């Protein structure tokens, strides 16, 4: 995949590639869950992961949907796990299959089961790795992970990946950090640590779904996110001369996944993304191409710049950003609404997060729903 020097995060596609995918109604990437099984109980987990879901996709079904995505033009497969992908017995077989198709792949993992041998296997198969890393304070990391000893194992995993040769030009290494009340003071130092080592800092705003709705104590305001984004923006300028403007939802770049991607959850349901947990079809019952082509939700989100509502529509960043669709959907029930956590155009953004947390604690977690006709 051709990348331009201004793609700071290294995980996205060029504007030219995105425009071609949108015009063709195809894909550039596919986000794939294996199972909801997980060895952590992260307090912010979007999937409320822990035990496997019923009727999860088989290895054969996972391979089939990867092949369908490739037919639609996908160049990269994002291995999310849903729970923890390293726990999935068929993981290596899936990775071998994706590699055999000549597709890029990135795995998001908590690293607890990482070994030197597994790290070497991933490196050999050209798998980029994004590691969970929420704090350099062991007590904070373990508390957020919901499991004692998580910090030590995460650090060991990072050591194994570095020893295997990560990162290099083909195999990127990143850390995924959710910005929370407990770690927000560390964000600038973690950013500096990562960028100075060639590690991609994938620092993102909390989406209020899943287990996060049970923990209002972890939420930060939009104003606090704005402040920390401004700090790391200045750090980036000093470290590498890279200049970018601070806006939601992932530091240093805009989420554009709805223009060219979708998610297949572990039960086969197709969703726009992890945050918009609205089912638009199931790959056990139909072809992925037909599901995407027939979905009103997918069409709306691919035309998000025209369909978006509220302040986001006229924002100065509207050409490059459409906020977090997950936050919009989880807090309002409308995936076309403006992002309530955005501080740029929304004067109430700093207060909205508290309202959403209070609303969520009263109503409980949103259940995933099927797309209405």
Q: How do the helices and strands follow one another from N- to C-terminus?
A: HEHEHEHEHHEHEHEEEHHHHHE
Put simply, the count of helices is 13
User: What sort of overall outline do the alpha carbons produce when their principal axes are compared?
Assistant: globular
Number of strands: 10
Percent of residues in helices comes to 25-40%
Specify the biggest β-sheet: 8 strands, mixed
Q: If you compute it from the alpha carbons, what radius of gyration comes out, rounded to the nearest whole angstrom?
A: 19 Å
Query: What oligomeric arrangement do these chains adopt?
Result: single chain
Q: What percentage of the residues does DSSP assign to strands (E)?
A: 5-15%
Q: What gap, in angstroms, lies between the N and C termini?
A: 36 Å
Find the structural class using helix and strand composition: alpha/beta
Average pLDDT, all residues: 89
Strand order of the largest sheet: 6-5-4-3-2-1-7-8
State the low-pLDDT regions, or none: 1-10, 348-367
Descriptive report:
By secondary structure, this protein is of the alpha/beta class. The chain is built from 13 helices and ten strands. The protein has helices at residues 15-24, 59-71, 91-100, 116-124, 138-145, 150-164, 187-195, 222-240, 288-293, 296-302, 304-307, 325-332, 349-363, and strands spanning 29-35, 76-82, 104-109, 127-132, 173-179, 200-205, 263-264, 270-271, 278-279, 369-370. An eight-stranded mixed beta sheet has the order 6-5-4-3-2-1-7-8, with helices on one face. Strand 7 and strand 8 (270-271) form a beta hairpin. The protein is globular.
